[in-house]
Design goal:
Two copies of one chain form a homodimer. Chain A is mostly helical and 149 residues long. In chain A, 66% of the residues lie in helices and 3% in strands. Chain A folds into two domains: 1-74, Multidrug-efflux Transporter Regulator, Chain: A, Domain 2, CATH 1.10.1660.10; 94-149. In chain A, a hairpin with a 5-residue loop joins β1 and β2. In chain A, α1 (5-12) packs across α2 and α1 crosses α3 (43-57). Chain A starts with a helix and ends in a 9-residue tail after the last helix. The mean pLDDT of chain A is 94. At the A-B interface, α3 and α5 of A face α3 and α5 of B. Chain A binds a DNA duplex (30 and 30 nucleotides) through residues 4-6, 15-18, 20-21, 24-25, 34, 36-39, 61-63.
Chain lengths: 149, 149
Amino acid sequence: MSYSIGAAAEAVGVPTSTVRYYDKEGLLPFVKRSDSGLRQFEDSDVDGLRMIECLKRTGMSLKDIRQFMQWCHEGDSTLRERRDMFYERREAVESQIEELRSTLDTIEYKCWFYDTAVAAGTDSAPREMVAAGDMPPRISKAHDRMMAR
Amino acid sequence: MSYSIGAAAEAVGVPTSTVRYYDKEGLLPFVKRSDSGLRQFEDSDVDGLRMIECLKRTGMSLKDIRQFMQWCHEGDSTLRERRDMFYERREAVESQIEELRSTLDTIEYKCWFYDTAVAAGTDSAPREMVAAGDMPPRISKAHDRMMAR
DNA sequence: CTTGAACTTGAAGCGAACTTCAATATCTTC
DNA sequence: GAAGATATTGAAGTTCGCTTCAAGTTCAAG
C-alpha cells in the first residue's frame, strides 16, 4: 500500500508543510498522485525523504539535494554522478567532524578557564595561570588557538 | 596599539561588513572608538571576535552569543553563567559529533552501494546484495537505519 | 448523508545572518 | 593639499529554509 503525506511525514519526523515544500522545490520527483490528486508515498519514497534529511545533516543545500534526487529519478545513466556525490559528502562530513573536534578543544579550554575563574571569584586567576603557562596538559594544546574572552 | 576594523576582520578571516553587523547587533560591546568615530580593536577585542566565530561553529545563534558577550562585558558577577554556558556548549558539540558520525555511517554505506552499482552498471546489483544480506560488515551495521535511494 | 479530519493549491510572511548601496567622513601618502 | 584607500551610517536587499494562511476538496466514520 501507500502512505498519505501525513503518515510519510510522521514516519520521517518532519512537518507536512516541509514535505510539500520539498515537493514544490522538485526534491520528490518520484512521488505519485491518486486520481483525486492526493500524494501517495511508497516505502521507497519514504526512504527518499529520509535520504533528504540525511543529506541535509551533511550540510548539503536543498538545491544540490534536488540535483541528486533527479539523478535518482533518471536511472542508471547517472550512477557515476551519484557515486561521486557521496564521495564528496564523505569528505565534507569528515572535515566537519575534524572542525568540531578542534572547536571542542577550545570549548574545553574555556570550561577549565571558567571553572578556575568561578573557584577564585575572578577571571584574573585563570588569566594569570595562562600567563605563567600553568595549565593542565589536556588544555594547554587548545590554548595555542586561544583568546581572552 | 589598536587595529582598524579592516585589520581586525582580516586577522579573524571575516568581511568587515560582518564585523559591523555584529557590532550593530550588540555582539561587540567592548570595542572603543577613536575621537573621530573609528572603531579601535585591541588584541583582546580581536580575540573576542575569534570567540564569536568559535561559538558560531558550535551552532549558537547570534542572539545567544550576544548574551555571552554582554556577560563578559559585565565582569566577574557573571562568571557562573558563562561557565554554565560553556558546559552546555560542550554537550552540544559532543552530540553534534555523534550525529555526524552516524550520518557518516550512512554515507559510507552509500559509497559502497554506488561503487557496486557503478561496477555492475545498474543499482539492481547492490540492491540484490542488500536483500541477500551480502554486504561488507563495516557497511551492514549502517544498513539498519537504511533507505532505498 | 453529514461531519470533521486530512488533504490540495498559491501566495504571503518570517527569522536568521548577512550583503549591498549611497552618501559622507577620515586617514595616509605623495 | 589633493588623491585614493578606508572608514562611518542607515536603509534596503538577498538567500535559505521553512511556516502560515485562505479557500477549497477529499476521505473516513458514524
